[in-house]
Amino acid sequence: MKNIDKLAQMFKDRENRDHIGMTTGEVIAVSPLRISYGQSVILESRHLVISKTFYNSHAEKGDKVMMMPDNELKKWYVIDTVVSM
Length: 85
Prior knowledge:
- The structure is a single chain.
- By secondary structure, this protein is α+β, with helices and mostly antiparallel strands.
- It has one domain: CATH 2.40.50.140.
- Helix content is about 20%, strand content about 35%.
- A 6-stranded mixed beta sheet has the order 3-2-1-5-6-4.
- The longest helix has 11 residues, at about 5-15.
- The protein is globular.
- Pfam families: DUF2577.
- InterPro entries: DUF2577.
- This is DUF2577 domain-containing protein.
- It comes from Chengkuizengella marina.
């Protein structure tokens, strides 16, 4: 089972009707793009929809990103990199 399917199954198994809103992830690879979410989910480029802002930011491994999934947790919209103050 793929990571994205594992995440969807975890929510289904819990019968969690709440949705995931805006959240953060971490870039773990740039080419191809891979972003970690939580402890065990790896989102690969085929699961990601990248904003123009993020695309032009030249993200690097270790960058934190702001993202939000669709209702089925199949596509994740990556909005931009973020920093902690």
